Every structure is written in structure tokens, then in C-alpha cells.
Please model this.
Amino acid sequence: MDYKLIFDNTPEAMVLLDPDMKIVGANKRYLEVTMRQLDNILGKHFLLEAFPEPNVPYEENPVRISIADAIQQGRKVYLDVIRYSIARPDGSGYDERCWEASHTPILNERGELLYMLQETKDVTDREETKKALQDIEQKFRFMADSMPQLIDADDAEGNSTYFNKQWEAYTGIPIEKLMAGGWKEAIHPADLQSAEQYWQQSLEKGEASQVEVRIRDKDGDYRWYLSRYLPMRNESGEIRMWLGSCSDIHDMKNLVQELLTSNEQMSELADQVQLAFRKVETERMTLERLIMQAPTFFAILKGKQHRYELVNTKYQELFPHINLIGKTVAEALPEVAEQGYIDVLDNVYQTGKTFEAKEILVQLSTPEGKLEDNYLTFIFQPLFDEHEQIIGILVAGFNVTDKYQMKKKLQELGIAVDEL
Model:
């Protein structure tokens, strides 16, 4: 059996070191990822000569430490995601990339070290996608937490998914308890039934609602609030989520009562009420735009059948002629199912392991039924409930078709293109 041929064509990036940490072999994938020629690294010290890290002393190099741990333990050791700078082949500087790696000692029958095998993977795109999603969530939370209003969100069925910090700061009720229905304790008993009726009507009719309620603060005092719930819909008109806001109108409410009692300045009251409503609406629209303006496409698939529950604008642009919400992937995108991606989704759902793909070809159907080549970089990431049970899958990524085609054209023209 030609083991060298197998090693050289293994899809995982691998490099083989001797006990002195000098490179004795590397497969094709490793050379592609590191932008090197085998002749240029063969026989060189792995970390001091071939791939020195300019920002970290050799003794503190996490790769060196991981290799030392693998030798000491006599078994495979995994290295968590790290940022490691790779020198450009033309000597113009360094590129900082994100890497995952493992180190496996190869021993003889006497337990003596013969070789060290490193398997590595460039996960920069995946980590940048994660960071982009985290940035979006952090921006949303920062904005919602910075607002003076009490902001909350619910899924399409009316289940609480978020309360901002103002809710906890004002009522003194912990977020966890608010999420579990504890918000009802803060509503004045005389207003609770009316508030729940309006909320139920909104859910049943799919329409916005507003009601004035008294909400108790942490000191036991009540203030009047204008509570409003608005549905957020997708392009097909289906409700994706509900956004609630409670604005303090206590002072305005008292002013109304005073004006009504004295029967004076009624026009001024109308102007103030109108201004208050416009302010609430402006803040709501700003928050809604922030939720949907994501630089990546993403969708949420629920359940074993992978049913679309949420898609953002970038994702919907991939399938402008299809109403995705409520359908399974197999129902909405039969061409994707035929390409084997349902099996991939099933595996993520069953194992809980994230799947990632870089510049992979996916054929998508046009409105005329013609299959078009698209190159996508994406991840399938499992979603868990509070009991660590898988309930769905998050799909997130980028459409890199233009970049892929440009790189291909450059290669056809004989222009060297580094792996991005």
C-alpha cells in the first residue's frame, strides 16, 4: 500500500516532524494552507525557521507547548483556536489567521518518539462569521439596554425571548424570573387582566396593540406606562417575532388628568400626546432595523425536519422567489436536498457538532427552474435549549461567488492567487 500517496492526498492539512521538531514531510493540503513549497520548509525547524511567530517568544508559543504536552502524555492533544501569524511567501510581512490543530506523537515499540504529526485547519472565516454574529447581538443588546423604555421580545407564538436591563433595574425582578412570566407580578392587579387580553388579541389577530398599565418599581410604587406590541414580519407577511416596549407616561398621564379636571389647555395636551407617540414609534423602528441589518446571511431552522423559523434579508436574497418561513428545507429547496445537505443538517442535529464549509459549490434554482452555481462560505451550528437539548440549527455565512469567480479568472490568466 502506498502510504505516502495516501498521506499526500489526505484532505486534512498535515505536517510531519522528527524528534528535533524539524519538518520531514507535509501533504498537499498543508502546503496550500500555509502557502509554501515543500522544498522551502523541508529540514527546517518547525517553529524557529519555517513558521516563527513574531509576536510570541518561542518558549511561550502555544504550538510548542501543545507539542510538548503531547510528547509528555504520549497521546493526541488538541489545541484550541488560536491566532497565529504566517509569513507571506514574498517576504512582505505576516498574515494573522485563526487555526485549530492537534498533535499526535508517533512512537516505536519501546515507546520512543519517532515523529510528531500535526493536523491543522484554517478556521479564520468561521471565526469571523461568529464574531460578526456576536457583534450584531451585542449591538442589539447595547441599544436595547441603553434605552429608557422597558424593552422585551417574544417569538411568533408569544414566548418571551428577551428583556432589557431596564426591566430588571426598574422592577427589581431578575431577568431569569421575568423570562419565566415574572413580569406579571409587576403589573398592577387592576390592569393585569386587561393587559393579558390585549396581548392575546394581538397574537390571535397578528395585529399591533397598545394599552396603558401601571407597573410597580422595586420600591413598591406604581407608575403609568404605555405598553405597545408590534409584530415583525418577513417578506411573505408571516410574523417572525414580537417587539414590546413600555414607555413611562406617568407624568403625562397626571397632566392629562389635571387638564381634564380643569378643562383647560386641551390643544396642548393633544400635541404632547402626539409627540409621545411619535417618539415611541421612532425608537421602535430604529430597533427593528438594527435587528435585521446583518452583514451576513442567516436563518434559524427548528426541529428534526429543519423548518424555517427565521430568515434575514441577506438569506432571503438567495431565494427571492420562495416563501421560506414555515417550510422545511426539503420542501422549500428540493435542489439543495438532492445535493446532500439534508444529510449534513441531520448529522449536525443528531451529533451537536458544528459543520463548516468554505467556498463550497451549491446549486440553487432560479425562478425559471434553472440551476445556478453559487459559492458559499457558511456554518451549520446547533441551537440548544436550557436543558442542553438540540432544538434547531443556525445557518450563517457569506455568498462568495463573485470573489471565487474573480480568483478563478486570475488563475486562468496565470496570476498567482494566495488562498484567502
In short: Residues 294-413 form a domain with the Beta-Lactamase fold (CATH 3.30.450.20). The CA atoms of residues 191 and 365 lie 52 Å apart.
